[in-house]
Design goal:
Bound molecules: thiamine diphosphate, magnesium ion
Number of strands: 20
Radius of gyration: 31 Å
CATH superfamily of the largest domain: Thiamin diphosphate (ThDP)-binding fold, Pyr/PP domains
Catalytic activity: N(6)-[(R)-lipoyl]-L-lysyl-[protein] + pyruvate + H(+) = N(6)-[(R)-S(8)-acetyldihydrolipoyl]-L-lysyl-[protein] + CO2
Protein name: Pyruvate dehydrogenase E1 component
Organism: Nonomuraea maheshkhaliensis
Structural class: alpha/beta
Helix content: 40-55%
Number of helices: 34
Strand content: 5-15%
Strand order of the largest sheet: 10-7-11-12-14-13
EC number: 1.2.4.1
Oligomer: single chain
Function: Component of the pyruvate dehydrogenase (PDH) complex, that catalyzes the overall conversion of pyruvate to acetyl-CoA and CO(2).
Distance between the termini: 80 Å
Number of domains: 4
Length: 821
């Protein structure tokens, strides 16, 4: 345990306690508490590595200083130039974080095997660095935020810039969460013998405001528990977020320190710049700083020396002029000093056993001038004036004349391809394994699995089987494939038994880096709960967010690690898209590939669970994601056809950047054999399942096909009305095809030659089938499960929504009557 220390001198402890007890008796408990607090805070609010312990700096500081100056300038110039077109961008974030990245680029980030999560709003500086290295041209910089013209995306978007960005980070909270699970996934690949990732390190650069997102801290204990010392968080504590101070009345550094320590992390603080060293010899000043609210400290940083002296240094004997005090308080921070940043990073990498967080203090907007630095509105300042550029030039000592600055737009500055700055930067990158950020995909197609796994499903079964079970059995078979079996990554948030997956426990085993250090209570049973270092299953516990983060890491492993993995994440469908839809969006941005499986789908199919469990809309949410192919299969053989095609489309020779969403049901139903010639229809979204006379057409998906078939029988027997039943495997794919087809859309091709009204029914809200209504071009009726779910028997709830066979038959009769009338 990291945070439990033994009492090596109980005698001394007893003496101290006695003294404190005496204070408490004589001066009261408040006084004793004050002393303790003072002791605690003063010891805590200092740099972890004091100046005298800093390691020697391994680089050429003068050159690095110049490189950083160019990057600062060009980032600001890029945004200001775009600002003239009203395009916006962020100046202050990178300005405060520049050294955090420069030290990483020159000494830490390994281009071959590290993964770096850049803070989204710092992207201008990352582009500026790539410009200095000759990776981006001036023309590209000028197209920042002008993507239709081939320009640079505003933030790290792998989909928009797939040879550059690896990790989409700008939706705050997802970066830190994904970084933890990426580090964890690196270990998983290693422990399973798929890839040696022992040299990989994950760096996550985060804002202090971003730490408020629940996702940012959601996985901290996992990271410590699993001993992820291949992970470092760097939190840029500039004390500000978008609107104002992150913690006006308290202190963010202390709060984060407690949170991370409590979670079992190693904490490194890099707070004060070198100029504070002498001042901080005063315990009184250290204590004052430790009790100054962040809002006040921000004000001090933007104030005159006189104010600073009165508010912070009153009564203290300080040998500094007002101007010196102003300079120190306004800008001397560890995060602006490469030596201090280097020392903190070294500490982080040297620490073994648990991950490290570096809490680094900076000034938001640093070097952009007094109008920007530490100002509440600086997050949204989008341009600097000519005067501000001139001042910046002087401060950073950059070679640009007043005349060159006189134009409308500030120029980009580059020291030239053969300059010492560029040579140095490139040499450092070469030594560190190549350029970064960068994303490369070495194509590595996977072979098709054996056909017999799918033909088993195509045969059907008389015994009722739920499609969830059919899917799980299929994957279980596929996991035995010699070549691709080990690439499957089953992910499930404490719901494996619900989906019949416990049969995987003893064979595939549950991943734990610790192995199994206990006798499982069910070890005598065939399906005992088996954990192992090389386990294949990621049984995540109750965290859909964590599961999605694991899925994201596995789904992009083909690019991040050159190792295609086949994740399937199976979840209660209600707790998928609506709970973690933003992660699905980020997954699409990260070009992830794999199978998302919404189990216990439908508003009426899971009995008795009610309003918060009954999912009648995830198909609609999924339809909004452009990278997602969403299917709602009715039969086991459809599941087989879709999975086989998915494997080809995502892992075959012409792999596409898509992922799948399949909804599967828990209602055991007879599984028919696959009719001839339906495969194309299954994949495109529709085929006629059972002809019945063609007077009307019932389109249905998922479990609803059974109600439609029953309605077909009723109509035939009771009314002599012959109706066709169609299986719609994907409403959204049909719509997508219809919207983009140049010729006749597939839906119309499939239904060509038929007549009569169309009635659609599913276990989803009507808006799901209504997606295709405009393209049917026939009288259209839809039935669905609009509104909140409720508990009851399947039959009673279906009657409530009007999707039971009798209601469907009534709707058909009405539609036929109207069409004839
Ligand atoms: C989920 C989410 N909510 C809101 C935003 C909008 N946003 C962008 S930056 C920002 C403030 C960031 O503050 P901080 O994390 O402290 O970063 P820094 O001060 O380094 O810019 C906000 C609210 C976002 N990008 N993502
Ligand atoms: Mg901040």
């Amino acid at each position: 345990m990291v945070y439990m220390e033994t009492d090596w001198d109980p005698q001394e402890t007893a003496e101290w306690l006695e003294s404190l007890e005496a204070v408490r008796r004589q001066a009261g408990p408040e006084r004793a508490e004050f002393l303790l607090r003072r002791l605690a805070t003063s010891g805590r609010y200092l740099n972890t590595v004091p100046t005298e312990d800093e390691p020697a700096y391994p680089g050429d500081l003068a050159l690095e200083q110049r490189i950083a100056a160019y990057d600062r300038w060009n980032a600001a110039a890029m945004i200001t130039r775009g600002g003239k077109l009203g395009l916006g961008g962020h100046l202050a974030t990178y300005a405060s974080a520049a050294w955090l990245y420069e030290v990483g680029f020159n000494h830490f980030f390994h281009g071959g095997h590290d993964q770096v999560y850049f803070q989204g709003h710092a992207s201008p500086g990352i582009y500026a660095r790539a410009f200095l290295e000759g990776r981006l041209s001036e023309e590209r910089l000028d197209l920042f935020r002008r993507e239709p013209e081939g320009g640079l995306p505003s933030y790290p978007h792998p989909r928009a810039m797939p040879d550059f960005w690896q990790f989409p980070t700008v939706s705050m909270g997802l970066g830190p969460l994904n970084a933890v699970y990426q580090a964890r996934f690196n270990r998983y690949l290693h422990n399973r013998g798929i890839k040696d990732t022992s040299a990989s390190h994950v760096w996550a650069f985060l804002g202090d405001g971003e730490m408020d997102e629940p996702e940012s801290t959601a996985a901290l204990t996992l990271a410590a528990r699993e001993g992820l010392d291949n992970l470092t968080f760097v939190i840029n504590c500039n004390l500000q977020r978008l609107d104002g101070p992150v913690r006006g009345n308290t202190r963010i550094v202390q709060e984060l320190e407690s949170v991370f320590r409590g979670a079992g992390w190693n904490v490194v603080k890099a707070l004060w710049g070198r100029d504070w060293d002498d001042l901080l010899r005063s315990d009184e000043l250290v204590a004052r700083l430790a009790e100054t609210p962040d809002g006040q400290f921000q004000t001090l940083a933007a104030s005159s020396g006189d104010y600073i002296r009165q508010r912070l240094f009153h009564g203290l004997d300080v040998p500094h002029s007002d101007e010196e005090l102003r300079r120190i308080v306004s800008g001397s921070r560890a995060g602006h000093e490469p030596r201090k940043v280097y020392a903190a990073y070294r500490r982080a990498l040297e620490h073994q056993g648990v991950p490290t967080v570096i809490l680094v203090q900076t000034v938001k907007g640093w070097t952009l001038g007094a109008g920007v630095e530490s100002r509440n509105a600086n997050h949204q300042m989008k341009k600097l004036t000519q005067d501000e550029f001139r001042a910046m030039r002087d401060r950073l000592d950059l070679p640009v004349s007043d005349a060159e600055l006189a134009g409308d737009l500030p120029p980009y500055l580059h020291p030239g391809p053969g300059s010492p700055e560029v040579e140095y930067a490139l040499e450092r990158r070469r030594a560190l394994g190549g350029p970064l950020p960068g994303r490369t995909v070495t194509h590595h197609p996977l072979p098709d699995p054996d056909e017999r796994h799918f033909s088993r499903l195509a045969k059907g079964s008389a015994q009722p089987v739920a499609t969830t079970m059919a899917f799980v059995r299929l994957v279980k078979d596929l996991m035995r494939e010699p070549e691709t079996g080990r690439r499957w990554v089953p992910i499930v948030p404490d719901e494996a038994r619900t989906f019949g997956m416990e049969s995987l426990f003893p064979t595939a085993k549950i991943y734990s880096p610790l192995g199994q250090r206990y006798d499982a209570v069910d070890r005598e049973l065939l399906l005992s709960y088996t954990e192992a270092t090389d386990g294949q299953i990621l049984l995540e516990g109750i965290t859909e967010a964590g599961s999605m983060a694991s899925f994201t890491a596995a789904a992009s492993s083909y690019a991040t690690h050159g190792e295609p993995m086949i994740p399937f994440y199976i979840f209660y469908s209600m707790f998928g898209w609506q709970r973690t839809g933003d992660q699905m969006w980020a997954l699409a941005d990260q070009l992830g590939r794999g199978f998302l499986v919404g189990a216990t789908a439908g508003r009426t199919t899971m009995t008795g669970e009610g309003l918060q469990h009954a999912d009648g809309h995830s198909q609609l949410l999924a339809s909004a994601n452009p990278a997602c192919l969403a299917y709602d299969p009715a039969f086991a053989y459809e599941v087989g056809v879709i999975v086989r095609d998915g494997l080809r489309r995502m892992y075959g020779p012409a792999a596409e950047d898509v992922f799948y969403y399949l909804t599967v049901y828990n209602e055991p139903m007879p599984q028919p054999a696959m009719p001839e010639g339906v495969e194309e229809g299954i994949l495109k979204g529709i085929y006629r399942y059972r002809e019945g006379g063609g007077q009307a057409h019932l389109l249905s998906s998922g479990t609803a096909i059974h109600w439609a078939l029953e309605a077909q029988r009723l109509l035939e027997e009771e009314y002599g009305l012959g109706v066709d039943v169609w299986s719609v495997t994907s409403w959204s794919e049909l719509r997508r095809d219809a919207m983009t087809a140049t010729g006749v859309p597939y839906l119309r091709q499939a239904m060509a030659g038929t007549r009569g009204p169309v009635i659609a029914v599913s276990d989803w809200m009507r808006a799901v089938p209504d997606q295709i209504a405009p393209f049917v071009q026939r009288p259209w009726t839809s039935l669905g499960t609009d509104g909140f779910g409720l508990s009851g028997t399947r039959e009673s709830v279906r009657e409530h929504f009007g999707v039971d066979p009798r209601s469907i038959a009534d709707a058909v009769l009405k539609a036929v009557e109207e069409a004839e009338g």
